[in-house]
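Bug #77: duplicate submission created two jobs. Keeping one. Sequence:
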Amino acid sequence: MKRFSLAILISFLLLVGCQNLPEFGTVDPSRVELVGGKARSIEVLSINDFHGAMAEESGGKNLGAAKLATVILNEQKANPNTLLVSGGDLYQGSALSAITKGAVVNEYLAYLGLTNSAIGNHEFDWGPDNFNAWSRDGKFPFLAANIVDKRTGQVPSWTKPYQVVLLGGHKIAFVGFSTIETLSKTKADYVADYDFLEPAKVAARLVPEIIRDEAPELIIAVTHLPSEADKAIAGKASGMPELYELDDLAKVPGINAVVTGHSHNTVAGIVSGVPVVQGYYNGRAVGKLAINFTADNAFTITPSAFEAFKNKDQIAEDAGAKKIYDDYNVRYGAGLADKVAVVSGDLAHSRAANVTPMGKWVCDVLKAHYGVQVYVHNGGGLRKGFAPGTVTVSDFWELMPYDNYTVTFKTTGKALKEVIASGIDSTDFGNGQFSGVKIRYNPAVSGTAKIVSLTLDDGTEVADNALYTVGTNDFQFFGGDKYTMIQPNATEVKETFDPVRDILIEAAKKAGTIVAPSVEGVVTKL
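Kept job's structure:
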């Protein structure tokens, strides 16, 4: 994979800061004024990485469906020539969405009038067979020009490479792209029949065809490609090497703007001369591409992002969206609010941290349950922390929305070192979480060589030729998050098929109180 170049850094230095923008929802007659029979101003709103966040988060940043609808619908009222698109990852993440296999989200998206959506990697979390139903129920097409069915050599039947829309009399082509990271961020079986091609290479071929066949006034890429603003500066560029996907796509002639996602950032700026937006995640912000035309049909595009979570207490709930959530919650939410346990201390979790209190607790529970010496879990597979206080069944669904199960096996100390080293200071996936070993490492060294010492909890040094019993989840065992070294070095493999979520709930109920474990000394940077 290409590394971050100076040109990319310069491009991202041009990204402008995002703020609460008063023009959202503000009526301005010039925005609906006609020029030559067409609207002077049109707008493309975008959400991304919604992750089924239908409920407002008490004390947190998630607006919930009803307040997010108010933000979007008010903007559409201010300028009727406004549409909404999505950067993907719409469904996976909340208990209500998972239980209904996305039905509650689709009814909501149909209510909002979503025009189209890119395909995110998490759209495959329940397998590849849901897209047709989601499109039918949500009343929108999925767009992904760079996914190819190996069996046919064509874009799959459940998606389209692009969509042409008339908005305010203007002809716009939306072309979709999914990140090639999907191959390592999804269960291998679910994407085995598909190739994910580099977006820029596909765009270089497809965009001239769209211009020739459709003659659009502008082309907007709706993508699940990551983007960053100031986080790409101050030496953090290497933390997301796949950003080249966006930079290369933006350089393709004919692409006028890009909607992004995947990296859960608020972005509104310019990359390689092209406007780029991203709306944080969980519906916390809304991206906007404001497109203004002149009499000679020239146009300018201004990117912005409205961080609605900063004022969420002042936003009213939209009655129609609230009813959708309430109806599903009554029908399917029974038991989700049931108390499981009380948390003592802060079970914090960040995918950027080398072993968090939450990661340590999860691995401790699973290590004890399966009687293994070491348990490892990918950091990105744990989606939240628990603050002190009561936690419910719904909290555990949000912590572990995936239906992963544990695989136990034996492996050598040499292979175990490679597994642990791979997850320390990871550059392109959540840092590894584990229990049963302690590591001292040198951050200036790469690969397994970074390990200065790896010991079991009792202080015994892990020996290269010795065998150890290990547990992990099936996603990681079969190569997810680039842990491709686990399966080939495993013996006495046992797939338990016990859902990880159920084991955690059972252990928490039995304990009554979850005491946040100390992570001091688990990972020591030298």
